[in-house]
Amino acid sequence: MSLNGDCNGEVTPPDLDQEPLVSCCRHCKEAATKPYVEGAAAPRTTIVIGTSEGYVLQVPMYPLIKHSAVIRDLLYDYCKNSQRTDPVLRLKPEFDAATLTRVVEWCNHHGDVDLSQPFEDMCEWDLEFLKIDIKSLMDLVKASYYLEIDGLGDLSCHGLAQVMGGKNPEQLRDMFHRANLHGDDWYDQQSDCSTDAVAGDEASETP
Amino acid sequence: MPQRDESDRRAASQVDLSLALDSLQRRSCAYGSLPHHYKPQYSFESPSSTTSASTTRSNSTADEEEDGKRRLHWNKVDDAGVKADLMRLWFTEFSDIQRNAFLREMIELCGPPQIHTLSLLVEDQLHRDCPHNCKDFLAWLPQHVCHAILSHLDPVSLARASQVSHLWRELATNEFLWKKLCLAHSWTLKKPESSTWKDFFAMRWRVRKNWLSARCHIRTFVGHTHAVTCVQMDDTRIVSGSHDQTIKVWDVRTNSKWSVMTLVGHSGTVRCLQLLGGESTPKLVSGSSDGTIKVWDLAMKPEWSSIACRTTMVGHLETVRCLQADEERVISGSYDRTLKIWCIKTGRCLRTLTGHTGKVLTVFYDAADNTLISGSDDCHIKVWRMESGHCVNTLEGHTEAVTSLTLAAGDGSERRIISGSLDRTIKVWSLLSGDCLSTLDWMNSEGHTGVIRCLQADSWRIVSAADDKTIKMWSLESGKRLVTFRKHEDGVTCVHFNDFTMVSGSYDKTVKLWDFRVC
Fold it and tell me: Which domain of life is it from (chain A) (predicted)?
C-alpha cells in the first residue's frame, strides 16, 4: 500500500495490461469468496481509491472487496463501463486518507475471516487498533457504515462507546458538543426519575 | 572581512527583492485591497544601516528590543515587511493545492509560539463551515448507527448520555436499547405491559440496588408465642408455623390484629409448610412433629379457621421435618428416615423412598428435571429419580447433618445443588457429576458462624439464614457474599424471598417482612 501524495493529480494509473484489474473484477464476486492469504501471489492485485484530500491510495483489492459489498459493487460497475478513463475509484462520499488507510489495515488483518460465521470477539490487535482519537473513530464509524463493513462497524462503535462510557453528562457535553450555541439544546434538568435512578450510580456497579 | 561580505550579499538580495516587487506590481493591482499598513514602501534603508542592525542584533539586548518594536510596526521600511508582502502576493497566485502544500510546510517550520498564535487565530474559524454541532456524531450519523454505538454502552453510561441533550435523550431512550439491557441481565421480573422498557429497567435497577445495599423497609409481625420454624409468602399473605403448634396467616396489606388467621389443629410443633398459589383456591400444606401432614383451605374467612383443615395425611412415624407440594402431590421427609410421596387430593401415600440412614431434614423437588434431592442427618445428600423412586447418586462431603437444599441454574444447562449444613458451611455441587464445586464457609468466605437453617436461590443469588442471627445473600456466579441482613434478635430459622420482598422467621418469635421496593 502506498500513499501517493501527488498534488497535481498526476497519478500513474495501474497498468491495466499487467495488473488484471479488469479481468479480476469481472469475477470479483467469486474472488471475494476466496480466502485471502497474505503474501500469496494473487492478492497483490491492487486498486486505486481517491481520498477527500485529492490523494489516491493504492491498496490491495482482495481484503477490501471481501469485507465491503459497496466497493465490490463499485468495482463491478467500474469494470462493466468500458469507456472509463479515470483509473481512480471514487467513493461517494469520499473519506480522508487516514481513515481509508485504517479501513484497509483492518480489512487486511481480518482478510482470512469466514464471513458466514458470526464475528468473533475482539482480539488484542483490534483493541490496539482502537487506540486512536475520537475524531478518527467517528470517521471510522462513518466509513465502515458507508462501505458496509459490519465487523469494523461493530469494532469502531465499540471504540466510541468505550470513550463515552463512565463519563457524566457534563464531560460528555464537553467532548461532543461545541460551545453552548443553542441554549435550548441542552437537556432540561427536570429529568425523569428512571434516568436518574440509573445515571446516579457508579458505572462500575453494573449488575 | 566576513561583515563586508554579508552586507554585500544583503544589498544584492534587496535589489533582487525590489526588482521582483516591481514586476509583481506591474502585474497585479492587489495592493488596493490591502490594509494600508501593509502597503510596501519603496525607499529602502541603506544597506549599511540594515547590516548594522542585523549584526548588533545578535550582540546587544537593547537593540533587540528596538528591533522587536520595529518589526511590530511594519509600516516602517523593513526587510521582513517586504518579504511578507512578497509571500502574500505569491500566495494569492497559488492554486488551492499549492496553498495547502505551502501551509503544511510553513507549519512544520513553526515553533511553539507560532503554533500558539495560530491556534488562537484559527480557533473561531475551525468549525465555520461545519454543520451545526459537528463534534456531536450522534447528530449526523444515521440513526441506526447511533443505536449501534449506544448499544455498546453500559446502563449507567447510557442513562448519562440521555442527560446530555434533547437529541441524545431521544436516541438513548430507544426501547430496543433498554430491552436489550433488560434481557441481558439474568434476573427475571415480569414487565408490566404499561411501562416502557427503560422504566422497567430502572425499576429493576433500583430494586437490585436496594437488595445489594440492604436498603429496605422492615415490618415485624408479632403473635407467635414460641419460635417460628417455617414461613412462606405470596403477594397478599404470609404464613408461618411455630413451636406453639399453630399456623398464622398474616395479611400483608394491613397491620390489623384482627386480620390474622390462626390455624389450630396440629398437636405438635409445625415444622414445615408450603403455600400453594391460585387466588381461587389457595391452599396450605403443613407438616408437624405429630407425624401428620395437613392441607388447609385458605379461602376461609378468619372466623371459620377452625374448620379450614381439608385433609390429614397420616403415615410418617415421626416428625414430618420437610415437605414440598404442588397441585398434585406432596413430597415429605421425616425423622423416621423415609421420604413419602402423597396424593394431595385423596391424601393417600403413593410411594415411600428409603435409603437414608438418618433423619431426613430437607427435600427439594424440581419438576423440570424430574429430580428429587434430599438431605439428611447422616451428612449425605441423595438424588432420586422421581418416576422410579431409585436413588441415583449420593453426595458426601458435609461433616454434619444437611439442613437445607435447593437447586439453581449453573453455567449453561448444568444444574447445581446448593446445600447448607450444621457444619456451618454452604456447599455447591454439580447435579450431574455429584462433585462438590465450592464451599462457602466462615473462614474463607466470611460465611455464617452458626448452623445454617434455610436456603433459597434464584437465577443470580443464594439467600441463607443461620443461627448467627443473620441472613446472608451470596452471588450465585462467584460465590461472593453480597450482603448481610441483621435485624433478628435470635437465630433465623427460615427465609423465603421473591424479587421484591423477603420474609423470615426466627427463634425470637417474630416474622419479619423485608420490602426492597422502597426508593
Answer: Eukaryota
DSSP states of B200-217: HHHHHHHHHHHHHTT--E
User: For the domain bounded by B139-213, which CATH number is listed?
Assistant: 1.20.1280.50
Q: Measure the CA–CA gap between B308 and B109, rounded to whole angstroms.
A: 97
> Which of B97, B134, B160, B517 best tests the A interface by mutation, with the highest count of A CBs <10 A?
B160
Residue-range domains of chain A with CATH:
43-179 (3.30.710.10)
B156 in contact with A, Cβ within 8 Å: yes
- Mutation site, B165, B197, B478, interface A, largest A CB count within 10 A: B165
Domain ranges (residues) in chain B = 139-213, 223-330+346-354, 359-518
Residue holding cell 408479632?
A: B222
Alpha helices in B130-232 (DSSP H): 137-140, 143-150, 155-161, 166-172, 175-184, 197-212
Task: Decide if B372 contacts B356 (C-beta within 8 A).
Answer: no
Count how many pairs of residues, chain A against chain B, have C-beta atoms within 8 Å: 137
Distance (Å, rounded) from C-alpha B403 to C-alpha B179? 40
Q: Which fold has domain B359-518?
A: Methylamine Dehydrogenase; Chain H (2.130.10)
Question: Cβ contact (<8 Å) for A7 and B101?
Answer: yes
pTM across the whole model: 0.65
Interface subset of A 118-147, CB within 8 angstroms of B: 138, 141-142, 145
Candidate from A142, A187, A194 with C-beta closest to B166: A187
- The tens place of each residue's pLDDT in chain A, 207 residues long, gives 333 333 343 344 444 333 333 333 333 334 444 444 444 444 467 888 888 887 888 888 888 888 888 888 888 888 787 676 777 888 878 888 888 888 888 888 887 777 666 666 677 888 888 888 888 888 888 898 888 888 888 888 888 888 888 888 888 877 777 555 454 455 555 456 667 667 666 544 444
A186–B165: do the CB atoms touch at under 8 Å?
A: yes
Confidence of residue B279 (pLDDT cuts 50, 70, 90): low
